[in-house]
Amino acid sequence: MGSSRTKAREHALQALFYMDVRQNASEEAISLYCKNFSLPKDDLPFFLELVKGVLSLITEIDEIIERFSENWKMSRMSCVDRNAMRIAVYEMLYRDDIPEKVSINEAINLGKDFGNDESGAFINGILDSIRIAIENREVQKVKIGK
User: Fold this and answer.
1) Could you give the angle at which helices 58-67 and 44-56 cross, rounded to 10 degrees?
2) What global pTM score does this model have?
3) DSSP string, 85-99
4) Could you say which of 10, 29, 31, 59 has the lowest number of CB atoms within 10 Å?
5) Going residue by residue through the chain (146 aa), what tens digit of pLDDT does each one get?
6) What are phi and psi of 52, to 5 degrees?
7) Where in the chain are the domains?
């Protein structure tokens, strides 16, 4: 199950990256991605939840990331870093079944695999601050029917 979710996260990162660069976050863009990149059928539901979840809550997610990023605007972050963190923050806030540390580790690995040499440490610093804020109830988790 874990590796399937990891693959779904990798595809979600790539799809969000594509939509971010193209500035086209539409159902059509998601369909085009799915048509051009073969996702295993088992990975598709989690992939779609991540992509659509991030896109539907992107304003709130970006505000949280910026709040904990110490003078880094989202626009200044690398496209890989910001989208890996968006996925992790979505999971941390909206998926009770995924431990925050798992979401953080997955985002760090995405940053290391697809980003630059500093991506892992950069992502870890911001997401760990968000995790602590969630534990201290400074940032609210949202329950959805999962």
Assistant:
1) 70
2) 0.93
3) HHHHHHHHHH-TTS-
4) 59
5) 457 899 999 999 999 999 999 999 999 999 999 999 988 889 999 999 999 999 999 999 999 999 999 888 888 999 999 999 999 999 999 999 999 999 999 999 999 999 999 999 999 999 999 999 999 988 887 765 44
6) -70, -35
7) 2-135
